[in-house]
Structures are given as C-alpha cells and as structure tokens.
Amino acid sequence: MDEYVVSAVFQTHSAAEQAVRKMGEAGLPIKQASIVGQNLQSTEQVHGFITTGDVARGSAGVGAWVGGIFGLLVGAAFLWIPGVGPLVVAGPFVASLIAGLEGAALGAAGGALVGGLVGYGLKRDKALKYETAIKAGSYLVLMHGSETECSQAKEILSAQGGQDIALEAKGK
C-alpha cells in the first residue's frame, strides 16, 4: 500500500489545532498528524502598561495550546533550526526533522527544515514554500497515511481554511 502525505498552511496556531481536532473527530489517525510552528512563546504589547498578570495570562494561553495539542499528537520537540529559529514540532514529523538536522550537520545541501520536509515526502519546491510560510509566522499541518485517509484529511483541511494544500505520494 502506497503512503501519502497531505499538508496545509494555517495563519494561526488555533486554526491549525482546530483542523487537527476535526481530523480526529472524523476518525482519522491523529498519531499520523503533525503541526510545525514558530514563535509560540512571543507576546506583543502595542502600548500601555504591562503587569506580571498580563504576561502570565498570555503565557497561559500559549501553554494551554502547547499542552493541548501535544496531548493529541505523538512526539513533540522544541528545536532551534539555523536560518529558521525556534520551532515547535508536534507529531511524527519530529523524527524526519531530526534526521534533516543530522544531515545538515554533515554538510547536506539546503536547510534542515526543507530537508526534513523533503524526507517526509514533500516535493522540494513545496518544502521551500512551507519553510517561507513558517518563517513568516504561519503553521504547517502534515498528515501521512493511505490515499483514502489523506484525501479525507485534505477535504477537512480545506474546509477548515487551510491554504496551499497539497496531497502527494511519499517518495514519488
């Protein structure tokens, strides 16, 4: 049986998390889903006074998201990727990304994130687009599985507002 990968970009981590939850509600295997995002710890205040309570409330929201989504997805890592910066990865994509980092450390061409995405089954041009989206603050949702599972996931990702959605056969 061929393995496929479906991917989509979301503008917010809450939208990415909601899409993964919808896939789970539809009976898709969440253990095969991953979310990749950056800057989850940053909080911006435009003007005014800030108190420790303000910071705690903002951090609690980030902590709730990280805890909630990590509870759904198998495996999680916080990594510092050269050229990308801090990256939080939840799901089975962690192993592929770590392999990409090892390859980059050994002098492989291209960035570690792009290498990890290509190793996961995405085409290089799509991986480059996704790296750019992640650097810009978007979140990438990935899921691997059978053609039927990934086709169903693609429909859900689209219905949830995913952008730049792709469905590809791994290794082809």
UniProtKB/TrEMBL annotation:
The keyword Membrane applies. InterPro entries: GSP17M-like_dom (IPR025889), Low_temp-induced_all0457 (IPR052948). Residues 8-73 form the General stress protein 17M-like domain. The keyword Membrane applies. Pfam families: YflT. Keywords: Membrane, Transmembrane, Transmembrane helix. The chain crosses the membrane at residues 62-81, 93-120. This is General stress protein 17M-like domain-containing protein. It comes from Meiothermus granaticius NBRC 107808.
